[in-house]
Specification:
homodimer, about 190 residues, mainly alpha, Arc Repressor Mutant, subunit A, Tetracycline Repressor, domain 2, 9 helices, DNA-binding, DNA-binding (chains A, B), transcription regulation (chains A, B), DNA binding (chains A, B), MftR_C (chains A, B), Homeodomain-like_sf (chains A, B)
DNA sequence: ACGTTTGATGACAGTGACTGACATCGATCG
DNA sequence: CGATCGATGTCAGTCACTGTCATCAAACGT
C-alpha cells in the first residue's frame, strides 16, 4: 500500500465528471473536485493542465487507435478508404462506452469552453491523420481535406449516435454519413 | 464631441492586436491593452467578453455574408454549389485584407487558446450554414455534412492563402480545394 | 538494519482574468 | 434648468493557475 490512495488521476476525473454533471461546469471549483477525490487543488493541477483537460483523458487513446487503423489500411486503399478504416476503429472503441459517452457529451455540450476544447482535440486528431495519410503517399491538400472530411463524418455520426436510443451502432451511423458525404460532394 | 474619444471598440481591438503581435498573447495583460487604448481594464470587459474575443470582431460579418450567399444561391443549385457560393463570397471579403489577415493569423496560430476560439467560431459558422441549407430543403445529415465539408475547404484554402505569397486569390485556392475534395471523396 | 534518495503530495503566497456594485459626469430630454 | 441616461472609472472580490518549499512513506543501496 502506498502512502496515498491509488488511481489519483481516475479519482479526479470521476469526481470532476460527477460534479460537472450535478452542478454544471462553471458552478464547480477545482478545489471542490480535489476535495471529493480526497486531494488538494494543487494536486489536481499536477495531473491536469487545466479545469477542462480532466474531461479529455481519452483523447490520446483515440488518436493512437485512429492513426494505427489509418496507417494499417491496405496499401491499395484510397485515402478515403483508409480514413473509413479509422472511423471503424473509433466506432468499435466507443461501442461499449455509450452511457459514459452520453454523460460526458451532455457536460461538454452545455458549456462553450468545453466545446472549444473538444474542437481542438478533434482538430489535433485531424492533423495527426493528415500526417499519417501523407506517410501513405497522399499529397497535400488531399491529405488534409480527407482528414477534415473524415472528422466531419465522425462529428455528425457521433452526435446522431448520442441522440438516438441505440438503434444503430456508431460505426453504422458513420458509414451512413460517409455515404451521404459522397452524395453531396458528388465527386469525380 | 463626446466626453470620451470615439471608436472605443476599434481602439481596443487595435491595441490588442498590436500587443499580441509584439509580445505574445500570454505575455500581454488586459490592463496593458486598456492602457494603450486610453481606457481601463473594466471597460475592456464591457466591450469584449474575454481576452480572446477582441480578435474576433469580424466573425459576425463573415457569418452574415456567408449565410446570405448560401441562401441566395439559385434554387436549382445543389447543396455543394450553394456552399461554393458562400465560399466565393468569403473569398471576396478577404481579398483586400490580406496583410491584416496574415498578422491576425500569426497571432492566433501561436496560441492554443486562440486556436480554440477560432475553431468554435468556424463551428458556429458551420451550424449557421447547415441551418441555411435546411431552409433550402436539404435534409439532415446532408446539410451538416455539406457545411462541415465546406468549412474544411475554407480552412485548408485559407491556410494556403496565408502561407503563399499572393500568387493565387483566396477564392481560387478554395475552388481548387473543393475540386480536390470531390476527388478524394470519389462521390456518387 | 539503517541512512539516503525519490516521488507524490500538502501548504502557501502570488498573478491575472473576470465580475458585481457603486460613483462620476457630460450629453440629452422634457 | 433639473432629471435622466449612458459610457466610463473605481474598487473589492472570486477563482483559475503557478512557483516554491516542506513533508513523509516507500524504495534503494550499503
Amino acid at each position: 500500500m502506498g502512502r496515498w490512495e491509488p488511481n489519483t488521476r481516475q479519482r479526479l476525473a470521476k469526481a470532476a465528471l460527477e460534479l460537472y454533471s450535478e452542478r454544471g461546469y462553471e458552478q464547480t471549483t477545482v478545489a471542490e473536485i480535489a476535495r471529493r477525490a480526497g486531494l488538494t487543488e494543487r494536486t489536481f493541477f499536477r495531473h491536469y493542465a487545466d479545469k477542462r483537460e480532466v474531461l479529455f483523458d481519452g483523447s490520446e487513446e483515440l488518436r493512437a487507435l485512429f492513426v494505427t487503423a489509418v496507417a494499417g489500411a491496405p496499401g491499395s486503399a484510397t485515402p478515403i478508404d483508409a480514413m473509413a478504416a479509422g472511423l471503424e476503429a473509433a466506432g468499435d472503441l466507443f461501442h461499449d462506452r455509450r452511457p459514459f459517452a452520453r454523460q460526458r457529451y451532455a457536460v461538454i455540450d452545455a458549456n462553450a469552453e468545453l466545446r472549444e476544447r473538444e474542437l481542438i482535440k478533434l482538430a489535433s486528431l485531424s492533423t495527426a491523420i493528415a500526417e499519417t495519410l501523407r506517410d501513405r503517399g497522399v499529397e497535400e491538400p488531399a491529405a488534409s481535406l480527407t482528414a477534415e472530411a473524415g472528422m466531419a463524418v465522425f462529428k455528425v455520426g457521433f452526435e446522431r449516435w448520442i441522440a438516438e436510443n441505440g438503434e444503430r451502432t456508431l460505426s453504422a451511423l458513420m458509414r451512413e454519413c460517409l455515404s451521404e458525404l459522397r452524395n453531396v460532394t458528388g465527386g469525380a
